[in-house]
Amino acid sequence: MHRLPLGWLAIIIIIVAVTLGALLFLDTQPLVEKDPAITAQEHAWARHWIATNRLRLRGSQSGELITVVLTERETNLLANELLNRLGQGRASLRLDDGRAHLATSLALPWNPLGGFINLELTLVEDGHLPKIETARLAGLPIPGALVQTLADRALTAVESTELLQRVELNDDQIRIAYEWRPDLLERISSGFVAETDLPNLLRYQDYLTRQVARGPRRQPLQLADLLAHLLAKAGAQPPSADPIAENRALILTLAAYVNGRTIREPADSATSAKPRHPRPVLLRGRRDLSQHFMTSAALAIQGDDTLSGIMGWYKEMSDAKGGSGFSFADMAANRAGIRLARLATADRESARRVQGIAEQGLTEEDFMPTLDGLPEGIDQRTFAANFGGTNHGDYQRLIVHIDRRIETRRLFREP
User: For every one of its 415 residues, what pLDDT tens digit does the chain have, with 9 covering 90 and above?
Assistant: First the structure.
C-alpha cells in the first residue's frame, strides 16, 4: 500500500495533523462527515484499484514512468480508503483548475478527549509540484511560518527524490506522473533528513550493514547488540566529532533498520546493494518491542517527547479498537526509547556517558524494563471498564510504575 502514489500524501496528512493537533487545539466535531453517498460498489472499486496497482508496481521496471489520472470522486474514494487503513480519519478533496482544497478529520482512537484534529489545506500549482497556499487547523489559521516549515519539509522530501515528475490540478481531475523505484519509500524518508545529517546517517548505516553481515544469516538480531556496536562506534570518533550528532545519527539509522527500511541518498539513481528486507531485530524476544523502542527514540530526537508519546499512545489505542489490543508492554518500550533519546542527546556530557557505558558492554537489561505483570491484549471495552481513560488513576499508576522500572535500568540511573 505504501507504494501507491497517493500513499505518501495520506501519511503526510496524518503526521502533520497529529503533530499540529498536539501543539494546538482539537475540535469537538469532525470537519469532514462520513459521506453517506459512497456505495458498496465504490468501496469495492477503491479496494480493487489499490490491489491492482500494487500488483502492477511489483511488475514494473525500476525507472519506468507511470502516470495516474483520477477524477475528483475517485481521488476522494482512494484518499478515504487509505486514511481508513492508516488511521481513523476522513478526507474531502475539491479540485479546481490549478488548485485543490483538501479537508481532513482525524479522530483520536475512541475520542477519549471528545475531540478531532481538523485540517484544511489549499494547494496551488507551482511548477511541477504544488505548494501549500493556506492552512487552517481546528478552524483556526495556522501561523504562516509554522505551516510553511512543515509543508516545505514534506514537499522537499518528495521533490529531492527526483521521482515525482509532475502533479497537475485540473477541474475535476488530478494527474500524477512519477518515476517508479522499488525503494520509493526509502528515498522519500531519506528526503526528510536534513542535508547536513545525511552523511552521518549513511556512515552509521555502513557500520550497521557490516556488523549484520558478520553474524549468522537468517537468524534474528538482538537490539542490544546493535545498539552497543553503534554507540561504541560513536564513542570511537575523533574528539572533534559532536557526540550529540553522532548519537542522533545512529538512533535514526537503527530506527529505520528495525522497521525494515534503509537510509540512502535521495537523488542516488543506483540500485541499492543493501538488503531490501533487513533481518528481524528483537527486544525481550519480540520484534514489535524493538520497533516501538527505536521508533519512539527517533521521534523524540526529531520532534520532542510529547510527540513521540502521543504517537505511541495513538498506536496502542488503535490496536485496542481493532488490532492486537492495548499493550502496556509496548508502552514500556515506547517510554524507554524516549528516555534513551533524551539521555543520548541532552548535552555533550550525557551523550559521551551513554557511549562510554556501551563501550563497556550493553545488554537489554541495561535499558529495557522487565515486562512482568504488564497487561497486554486489552480490547476497547476492557480498557474502558478497567482504566476509563488516560487520566484515570489506575492508568496513571501503571505508567508511573513503568517509569520507575525504567529508572532502575543501569543506563538511566543518575551518575
Answer: 333 334 434 444 444 444 444 444 456 677 888 877 888 899 899 888 888 877 676 666 666 788 889 999 998 998 888 777 655 678 888 998 889 998 888 765 544 445 677 778 888 888 777 877 777 766 555 554 555 555 555 555 555 555 667 888 988 889 888 776 654 444 444 444 555 677 888 899 899 999 998 877 778 999 999 999 999 999 999 999 999 999 988 998 898 888 777 776 655 555 444 445 678 999 999 998 998 898 888 877 765 444 444 444 444 444 444 456 778 888 899 899 989 999 999 999 999 999 999 998 899 999 999 999 998 888 767 777 777 655 567 878 888 999 999 999 999 987 7
State whether 208 and 93 are in the same domain.
no
Amino acid at 16: V
Domain presence at residue 2: no
- The SS3 call for residue 311 is helix
Decide if 178 contacts 66 (C-beta within 8 A): yes
- Tally of domains in the chain: 2
The H or E element spanning position 49 is helix 40-58
Q: How far is CA 365 from CA 6, 362, 371, 411, in A?
A: 42, 8, 11, 9
Parent domain of 147: 7-184
